[in-house]
Amino acid sequence: MSTNVQRLPAEELYQRELEALISAEHDAVPTGWRLSPRSVLIYLTGGETVKGVEITPKYMGNRRLVEIAIATLVTDRALLLIGEPGTAKSWLSEHLAAAINGDSTKVVQGTAGTTEEQIRYSWNYAMLIAKGPSPEAMVKSPVYRAMETGTIARVEEISRCASEVQDALISILSEKRLSVPELGMEVPAQKGFSVIATANTRDKGVNDMSAALKRRFNIVVLPTPADMATEMEIVRTRVAQLSAGLDLFAAQPDEDTVEKVVTIFRELRFGATLDGKQKLKTTSGVLSTAEAISLLANSMALAGSFGSGSISASDLAAALQGAVIKDEEKDKVSWKEYLENVMKKRGSAWLPLYRACRELG
To answer: Is residue 159 located within the same domain as residue 260?
Structure first.
């Protein structure tokens, strides 16, 4: 495992856990899988020790949703994970592929510029001109390679792809075959092939999925963390994991700091204080759990590079301002009202953060 890679794929980062689960496997393993569905669930939800290796939780949320996602991939249906930004759709997708196949890297990243060739195949045009259409001249997409090997392909942010790109998946998911007319052949999907797609509810209406395509997926909606304690645990765990691979030179945020960030995010996200007694103006941003994790990592970088090595109120305030204020007009008003009407009135424990935020304007 390389220590100089900025971000390792899940199967390399959690290699010891996966190897322990594989060696301890005693349930039936579906064709093309490395682990049984029950072992995949243990890998994702954690909380157990297998052959002396602690299995850390990868997804902290509704266990039943994870079971449904795994069970879907045992069948011939594809899986679509839908939710607000920051609800761990991509994270869960990556870890599902890592646990099932030991390879989470067959990915198509959906954007406005994604083409049909990235779903099917394209050509090396130098070889195409020199020799004409041939298997050697073909550039296989991640979906094509997954079909050949009986593994899982991932399509991220599918609703950001144009309709014709999305529709390229319909025949693949229906017939489980990919036609290559230039070579007069069809590629059949091997057992174990499936697709995990993710879609962001904030992108609804950008490129709505057709009813025909939706029917090819089993849809699992991932909610935001249900309660404060769960969200704090997710933030704490992921900040520790994220910072372990970065040279931040700072201590982990303490419980009080994590609580403050999660409190601010939940209140501005839902438009009310935690006790429900005061209505608040929401912001244009999502203020997701993923953003809270990034905010604390950024605060650690500030503390380690320019501060004492422990997150101070000024480090937190600087990161908060960038996270909360996305739309200068609307968000500045919402943030100022939150500072004066909520944070200022919370007593001495919140006063240093309030003052640091005020100093930043």
So the answer is: no
Please report the pLDDT score of residue 330 as a whole number.
Answer: 83
Left if phi > 0, otherwise alpha if psi is -120 to 50, otherwise beta: which for 205? Answer: left
Of 188, 222, 256, the position where a domain reaches its end is 222
- CATH label of the domain that carries residue 88: 3.40.50.300
Give yes or no: residues 109 and 207 share one domain.
Answer: yes
On the CB side of 337, CA atoms within 13 Å amount to 16
> Long-range contacts: 312-317, Cβ < 8 Å, 24+?
312/356, 313/352, 313/353, 313/355, 313/356, 314/356, 314/359, 316/257, 316/260, 316/261, 316/353, 316/356, 317/353, 317/356, 317/357, 317/359, 317/360
- On whether residue 56 sits in a domain, the answer given is yes
pLDDT per residue as tens digits for the range 169-210 = 998 999 999 999 999 999 999 999 999 999 988 776 677 888
Say if residue 158 is in the same domain as residue 249. Answer: no
pTM above 0.85, yes or no: yes
57 plus 183 within the same structural domain: yes
By residue range, what is the domain housing residue 97? 10-222
pLDDT exceeding 70 applies to what percent of the chain? 99
Element containing residue 312 per DSSP (H, E): none
Which percentage of the chain shows pLDDT scores above 90? 78
Q: Which amino acid belongs to residue 256?
A: D
Which of 177, 203, 222 corresponds to the end of one domain?
222
**Residue pLDDT, tens place only, 124-150:** 999 999 888 999 999 999 999 999 999
- Residue 285 is predicted with a pLDDT of 82
Give the DSSP H/E element, type plus range, for residue 77.
none
| DSSP string for 198-217 | EEEGGGTTTSPPPHHHHTTE
